[in-house]
Amino acid sequence: MSIENIEIAKTRYQQGINAFEGGQYRQAVEFLETASAMLTRNTRLGGEVQIWLATAYEADGRVDDAIALCEQLKRHPHAETSTQARHLQYIWKAPKLQRPKEWMTEIPDLGSISDNGNKTKLVFNPSKSSNEQKKTPEPEYVDLSQVNTEDNRFIWVALVVVALTVLYLVWLSFE
Length: 175
Description:
Residues 118-139 are annotated as: Disordered. This is Tetratricopeptide repeat protein. InterPro entries: TPR-like_helical_dom_sf (IPR011990), TPR_rpt (IPR019734). By secondary structure, the protein is an all-alpha fold. It has helices spanning 3-21, 25-38, 44-59, 63-73, 79-93, 153-174. The chain has a domain at 3-93: Serine Threonine Protein Phosphatase 5, Tetratricopeptide repeat (Alpha Horseshoe), CATH 1.25.40. The chain is built from six helices and no strands. The mean pLDDT is 84.
């Protein structure tokens, strides 16, 4: 394996990571597959690339490919790679839990709203009808005659302490 091929593989590996982190999973798979093909799979770098490739497979919706790759990587000579493969495979093979509908938040599709300048108020509350929605509460007014407006002695004590500290520091600087 030439040094030039290793450098190209490292470049593709970094491009794959960047694409993955940018949410472009299909492109990440392409870059990482290219890098993996250019490297010896039993090396530390080859294992890292394959772990990223398995993660990209899973993110791209190819869970079976990710699990199959992790099955191969469990026998990788580099201990960290085989451990990561075991952990990932364990997570991906775990049964999917059913969440109650009350725990889920539905996000409305805003793609159907046109940008023609019309101001449309979109109200979405699946648990209440439009007639039952809460009205905005009236602002609370505070009676100023009930508010304590006297000077607080703590402020004066704090100002004196700060002034004494500053004077002490100035005195120390002249010694």
